[in-house]
Design goal:
The complex is a heterodimer of chains A (613) and B (187).
Chain A lengths: L4 E7 L3 E8 L13 E3 L1 E6 L2 E5 L2 E2 L2 E3 L20 E3 L1 H9 L4 E2 L2 H5 L24 H19 L9 E6 L5 H13 L5 E5 H12 L3 H4 L5 E7 L4 E11 L2 E9 L7 H18 L6 H18 L8 E6 L6 H4 L1 E6 H12 L30 H9 L23 E5 L6 H17 L6 E3 L7 H13 L6 E2 L5 E7 L12 E7 L7 E13 L3 E4 L1 E4 L10 E2 L7 E2 L3 E4 L9 E10 L5 E7 L4 E6 L12
Parallel strand pairs in A: 1-10, 10-11, 12-17, 14-19, 17-18
Antiparallel strand pairs in A: 1-2, 2-3, 2-6, 4-5, 7-8, 7-9, 12-13, 13-14, 15-16, 20-21, 20-24, 21-25, 22-28, 23-27, 24-26, 27-30, 28-29, 29-30
Chain B lengths: L10 H18 L4 H4 L20 H16 L1 H6 L7 H22 E4 L9 E3 L27 E3 L6 E5 L22
Antiparallel strand pairs in B: 1-4, 2-3
Helix pairs in contact in B: 3-5
Classes of the chains: A alpha+beta (613), B mainly alpha (187).
């Protein structure tokens, strides 16, 4: 049966969303495709199922005594081992040691074995932990079964499905996302970068987009989600009289988002209360956190927002009034903690601090050391240009990439004041460098744009609508040990062979016939694997002498050559890289006789010091 | 003066009760309450197994209370002795309660005014509307004519009625009588 729907899934750090559009609008020459949001049925209280526009990306490992028998039954699963969504988040506040959160951030963290039982990090002895891949699988499976429950005539696995990932996700994190989707019963999933999806959502809402941008324009997409900040640059080019869009750069992975902002504000209020002798417990702190989120949005909306906002946290015992804690959030606090703390006025030459500051770090995840998003932006805009960018990208004489437009995405930007500040800082840099200011592109529905944009892109892939050309947003290298006389206690120096140049396009492949490797049949052979977002000009096949700070080591790639007999055979192979039509990166070993073996990421191997920055 | 007073000592009284019982059984098919109390107490037979809990109308009421308690702490607030607190303290809690009660109420109940018009203005009543003939839906105050009904007047309160109730299904197990579990935090 042909697919009836194109489905976009935003698998977020703190929230998931699903949008769909009807595939038959493809054949309709007049009708513009529109994507609509699927409200996700989920447990919101024990025994109560409700459809909500977002599925919070939280899992709760139910234990004995957590819920009454049958209270966590779903129409498609009478006894789930993991409760997902609103109820998981609610119960998780009361018992954080069974709560799984930020699974997506763990998925992209090379410092741990992402297929081992890691979460919840703080689980008590005796709780069966699950892996970040398994947690992601559970969220995706919930979405699939919820959809199938409401659309039995069009099961999700038979539709065109797109799942979004941060542009800064490396090949391993993308591979693991695909693995989670496959294990969740998805078929033929296509991945799409979130900032691109946000831009597609803008195009979907502005069918006259060709009149709003012109050749030579450069659009900076700033996507601040719950847990991550993601930058991308999209250049408007022209080909045969038609406007084209090229994604020319993506930022590094920054674990810093809206949740950090709300928490920072809550911590500031908590400190003020503590000074007056009032102590909050974890549940009250969570209530304060939620209050701060609401207060932030109210006060940062427009210039006319209230000067101060009272927050009250009800008493814990049966005495509500007696135990109520009152506090105020003042405009100055917001400006100090949020605007100046996260978006400080800095020079475009100021780079983020690499050292972790006390207070921001938490057990496990490599949170960004510097909370200043403006400094991360400065570093992004000062990245070296790639060959593909030349000509298409506006740059100042001082070497700063100069966007002409800015598209904001993510719930954080519902606060007008934060948008204004970012624009103010960016335009300050541009003025200083003597170029014209960037204009904001107004997106709508900042919380759901990514899912909607993904559905639009699904149609574009099928032929209706414009496609952003991207290619691989990083350069990838295989480590090669140099032949040298062995020196005791010293590892042989490593060089890097460029196997995937920046921007390598979907549906293309590259061979490296000059470099042969001798691999023994039946024994696993391992290749060390590196990537770089900053190095964009290394051509395919080039050998880099020194592996510097610009490189990040990923999980190693492994291959076991299957042979014919029991004899110890050594096969000489060469490497080949393929970027599939769906944007998946593959490495192959090819023998002269035509036999070939695919290399797989070995995420089980712990990588020494190869974590993301 | 009751029939039973001093009946043990008063023979006439006992005859009177006997006759009363006779007629009561003959015409009313039941023993008078006063006499029934004299019979040895008969325990109702114990049911073989506890009956399966069946949701009754009272369960819905308890459920709404427990929802308002869970989401907005309403029961705690109503039960609490407020005499020792300042208006400011009560106000701070009330603001929080109010912001949580409202969404909770509208989520599970759909409320609508009985008469959708501006209060404190003159209103001509729709004599054909269902509310006009329903004393539970429409109440006349002040200079009410002898007929008990008037064609119009000043609308003092537009009234509320429940258009729809959407409560989650009541679980088959567990005690519905609990509207807030006791909470024990492990150190």
């Amino acid at each position: 049966m042909p697919a009836k729907f194109v489905i976009g899934i935003d698998l977020g750090t703190t929230n998931c969303a699903l949008a769909c559009t009807e595939a038959h609008s493809l054949n309709d020459p007049v009708q513009q495709p529109t994507a609509s949001l699927f409200e996700v049925p989920q447990l919101v209280n024990p025994g109560e199922i409700r459809s909500e526009p977002l599925l919070p990306s939280f899992g709760y490992l139910t234990g004995p005594g957590d819920f009454a028998a049958g209270a966590t039954a779903l129409p498609w699963n009478p006894e789930p081992s993991l409760v997902v969504g609103v109820l998981a988040q609610k119960r998780g506040v009361e018992n954080a040691r069974r709560l799984i959160s930020s699974a997506k951030s763990w998925l992209s963290y090379a410092g741990v074995d992402r297929e081992s039982g890691l979460l919840p990090v703080a689980a008590q002895e005796g709780v069966a932990k699950i892996s970040p891949v398994e947690a992601s699988r559970q969220y995706l499976e919930h979405l699939r079964l919820a959809w199938n429950h409401q659309h039995p005539e069009a099961p999700l696995e038979e539709q065109h499905v797109l799942v979004t990932v941060p542009a800064s996700f490396d090949a391993v994190a993308r591979d693991l996302t695909l693995r989670a989707a496959a294990e969740a019963g998805f078929r033929d999933v296509v991945l799409l970068e979130e900032p691109q999806a946000a831009f597609y959502a803008w195009i979907e809402r502005h069918t006259d987009w060709r009149e709003r941008v012109r050749e030579g324009d450069l659009i900076l997409v700033i996507d601040i989600g719950g847990g991550t900040t993601d930058f991308s640059l999209i250049a408007v080019t022209q080909e045969a009289g038609e406007l084209k869009l090229d994604r020319v750069a993506v930022g590094e992975h920054i674990l810093l988002g809206g949740d950090n902002m709300d928490l920072a504000l809550a911590r500031a209020v908590e400190a003020e209360l503590a000074a007056k002798g009032t102590k909050l417990d974890t549940i009250q702190l969570f209530a304060l956190w939620q209050n701060c989120r609401a207060a932030k949005e109210k006060m940062l909306e427009d210039g006319a927002g209230p000067k101060e906002q009272p927050v009250s946290i009800l008493g814990r015992g049966s005495g509500v009034v007696g135990g109520t804690i009152r506090a105020k959030i003042r405009r100055e606090d917001l400006d100090r903690v949020l605007v100046d703390g996260f978006l400080p006025q800095v020079a475009s030459t100021e780079m983020p601090q690499e050292r972790r500051r006390a207070g921001l770090a938490e057990v496990g995840l490599p949170y960004a050391a510097d909370a200043a998003i403006t400094r991360h932006l400065a570093r992004f805009l000062r990245q070296r240009a790639s060959a593909a960018e030349h000509g298409a990208v506006r740059r100042t004489r001082g070497g700063l990439t100069a966007p002409t437009h800015v598209l904001f995405n993510g719930g954080v930007f519902r606060a007008t004041r934060l948008r204004d500040r970012l624009l103010e800082v960016l335009n300050g840099w541009l003025r200083e460098e003597g170029v014209s200011e960037a204009q904001p592109l107004l997106g709508e529905d900042l919380m759901h744009a990514v899912a909607r944009g993904a559905a639009y892109y699904g149609l574009a892939r099928l032929g209706k609508g414009v496609r952003i050309r991207g290619g691989v947003p990083r350069t990838y290298y295989v480590g090669i040990e140099t032949a040298m006389p062995a020196v005791p206690g010293m590892a042989a120096p490593l060089k890097a062979l460029t196997v995937v140049p920046f921007g390598m396009e979907e549906g293309t492949e590259l061979s490296f016939p000059d470099r042969e490797f001798a691999l023994a049949v039946g024994e696993p052979a391992e290749f060390r694997f590196f990537s770089s977002v900053r190095r964009k000009d290394d051509p395919a096949g080039s050998l880099i002498e020194e592996i510097s700070d610009d490189f990040q080591e990923l999980s190693p790639m492994e291959v076991t050559l299957s042979g014919t007999g029991g004899e110890r055979e050594v096969v000489r192979v060469t490497l080949k890289t393929v970027v599939t039509e769906t944007g998946v990166l593959q490495l192959w070993c090819e023998a002269r006789d035509g036999r070939r073996w695919k290399l797989e990421f070995n995420v089980r191997e712990r990588v020494g010091g190869g974590s993301e920055p | 003066m009751g029939i039973l007073e001093d009946w043990r000592n008063d023979f006439l009284g006992r005859i009177s009760l006997a006759i009363h019982c006779f007629f009561s059984i003959l015409f009313g098919n039941r023993l008078p309450e006063e006499a029934a109390r004299l019979l040895p107490r008969q325990e109702p037979p114990k049911p073989a197994a506890p009956p399966q809990p069946v949701a009754g109308p009272a369960d819905g009421a308890v459920q709404i209370l427990s929802i308002l308690q869970r989401d907005a702490r309403l029961v705690d607030f109503l039960v609490e002795d407020l005499s020792g607190y300042t208006d400011e303290q009560v106000g701070a809690a009330a603001r929080s309660l109010h912001s949580q009660c409202g969404p909770c109420l509208t989520r599970y109940l759909k409320l609508a005014p009985v008469i959708d018009a501006v209060e404190s203005t003159f209103l001509k009543l729709d004599l054909a509307a269902p509310y006009y003939s329903d004393p539970a839906a429409l109440k006349f105050l002040g200079n009410v004519p002898a007929s008990g009904k008037a064609p119009g007047g000043i609308l003092r309160h537009k009234g509320w009625r429940v258009e729809r109730i959407e409560l989650p299904p009541i679980p088959a197990t567990g005690s519905l009588a609990v509207i807030q579990p006791a909470e024990v935090e492990v150190e």
